[in-house]
């Protein structure tokens, strides 16, 4: 049986990064047959724009070449997420929240009709059955505290995508309860 791990790092620091060190250790503990590595600080993801937005509302067979190009990165990131059984995310907390690179990744993978759907009873996540382990490193924002806007946001957005098995760890590996959203 295969076990695919998607390893996402979002710290702007490459040297001496506590979140990178912790997430790498978590990946090493997984019984992975395949690891997909996505370093969000190594390359810049595009921000959403008009072409992207229009492309997501256009049926695939009717998309222009420009719309197809606008979704190319998103399609790759979504495929990585869909292929993963376990997702390990290393997060450095900047200004009480997640790095902009991680927010850009979320914007690229949160796609109506692809990773979530609107139903008569409300939104439904389409990425069920996955496990996420998030390791946070923060110089002064205690994870789970009233000034932590990172952990509750990530737990919420992952749940919106259908991923509800989320474990949050501090940089020392201790499990932390996210503040209620």
TrEMBL record:
<protein>
    <recommendedName>
        <fullName>FMN dependent NADH:quinone oxidoreductase</fullName>
        <ecNumber>1.6.5.-</ecNumber>
        <ecNumber>1.7.1.17</ecNumber>
    </recommendedName>
</protein>
<feature type="binding site">
    <location>
        <begin position="17"/>
        <end position="19"/>
    </location>
    <ligand>
        <name>FMN</name>
    </ligand>
</feature>
<feature type="binding site">
    <location>
        <position position="11"/>
    </location>
    <ligand>
        <name>FMN</name>
    </ligand>
</feature>
<keyword id="KW-0288">FMN</keyword>
<dbReference type="InterPro" id="IPR050104">
    <property type="entry name" value="FMN-dep_NADH:Q_OxRdtase_AzoR1"/>
</dbReference>
<comment type="function">
    <text>Also exhibits azoreductase activity. Catalyzes the reductive cleavage of the azo bond in aromatic azo compounds to the corresponding amines.</text>
</comment>
<feature type="domain" description="Flavodoxin-like fold">
    <location>
        <begin position="4"/>
        <end position="176"/>
    </location>
</feature>
<keyword id="KW-0285">Flavoprotein</keyword>
<keyword id="KW-0560">Oxidoreductase</keyword>
<comment type="similarity">
    <text>Belongs to the azoreductase type 1 family.</text>
</comment>
<dbReference type="Pfam" id="PF02525">
    <property type="entry name" value="Flavodoxin_2"/>
</dbReference>
<dbReference type="InterPro" id="IPR023048">
    <property type="entry name" value="NADH:quinone_OxRdtase_FMN_depd"/>
</dbReference>
<dbReference type="InterPro" id="IPR029039">
    <property type="entry name" value="Flavoprotein-like_sf"/>
</dbReference>
<comment type="subunit">
    <text>Homodimer.</text>
</comment>
<dbReference type="InterPro" id="IPR003680">
    <property type="entry name" value="Flavodoxin_fold"/>
</dbReference>
<keyword id="KW-0520">NAD</keyword>
<comment type="function">
    <text>Quinone reductase that provides resistance to thiol-specific stress caused by electrophilic quinones.</text>
</comment>
